[in-house]
Design brief:
With 257 residues, the chain is an alpha/beta fold. It contains ten helices and eleven strands. Strands 1, 4, 5, 6, 7, 8, 9, 10 and 11 form a nine-stranded mixed sheet that branches. Strands 2-3 form a two-stranded antiparallel ribbon. The longest helix has 13 residues.
Length: 257
């Protein structure tokens, strides 16, 4: 099974422009993402897909495989679609690796690839991490719309993704403030069988997607099953200036070289 890892790296983020080029402990973010992801055992090839010359030049400077792609793509999935349409080689599985997680765990990439190795019927896969919190922290964490929650069936397929707290805790008002409960947090990395990726990039925005602003709901609404693997690795994404400053102030937690 040939597996292609793609790291979409867009320059024009509305919340933090040019973030793939941010300096993190002496290396650009895109360089750190590539170096971490390249340690995954299951990848046949790894490439950066960007829409900006400066990111392209940064990759070339450090001999990182890179492809220029269109500026018109609205998400990383579309950018991955352009990459596979241009490459001469054919790959069975495509892994969309987030370009804003400079300390991604390579083991989590391998865990995602295992979804397809273990299940021939899996066409889309993603990861979750089981989170445990106490009732006293429900409002600040479980109700945080930036933390995407997932509920699954007994065959490890996603039933729904939401910014709202799912499942709803009906008895939360009567819970002891230190009582623990768990939920599944989505880790935003996706794997696709090539033929499915080639189809879903042509789907139009769905109703649930438009409400939650979660692309994966488009696939669910169109009848595609999303298989879930559990990981123990959670990586810090950098979406805002505050995220960037947090990482800089806590580099000793992340940098291992």
């Amino acid at each position: 099974m040939k597996v292609l890892g793609i790291i979409p790296a867009r320059y024009g983020s509305s919340r933090l422009e040019g973030k793939p080029l941010l300096d993190i402990g002496g290396k650009s973010m895109i360089r750190r993402v590539y170096e971490r992801a390249s340690q995954a055992q299951g990848l046949t090839k790894l490439i950066v897909a960007t829409d900006h010359q400066n990111i392209y030049d940064e990759c070339k400077k450090f001999s990182i495989p890179v492809m220029m792609t269109a500026t018109s793509h609205i998400n990383g999935t579309e950018r991955c679609g352009e990459v596979i349409s241009k490459l001469k080689e054919s790959y069975d599985i495509i892994v969309n690796i987030q370009g804003d997680e400079p300390f991604i765990h390579s083991a989590s990439i391998d865990e995602l690839i295992m979804v397809f190795q273990k299940n021939n019927s899996a066409s889309i896969g993603t990861l979750v991490i089981k989170m445990e919190t106490i009732a006293n922290d429900v409002k600040s964490y479980f109700f945080n719309p930036s933390i995407i929650k997932v509920v699954t069936d007994d065959k490890n397929k996603a039933l729904y993704f939401s910014r709202s707290p799912i499942p709803f805790i009906r008895d939360k008002e009567t819970m002891n403030k230190n009582e623990k409960f768990s939920f599944k947090k989505h880790i935003g990395m996706y794997g696709f069988r090539r033929e499915v990726l080639e189809k879903i990039i042509h789907l139009k925005e769905s109703y649930l997607e438009s409400q939650e602003k979660l692309e994966q709901l488009r696939w669910l609404e169109n009848g595609y099953a999303i298989y879930i693997a559990e990981t123990e690795y959670e990586s810090k994404s950098i979406d805002t200036q505050e995220d960037y400053e947090y990482v800089l102030n806590n580099l000793y937690h992340y940098i291992d070289e």
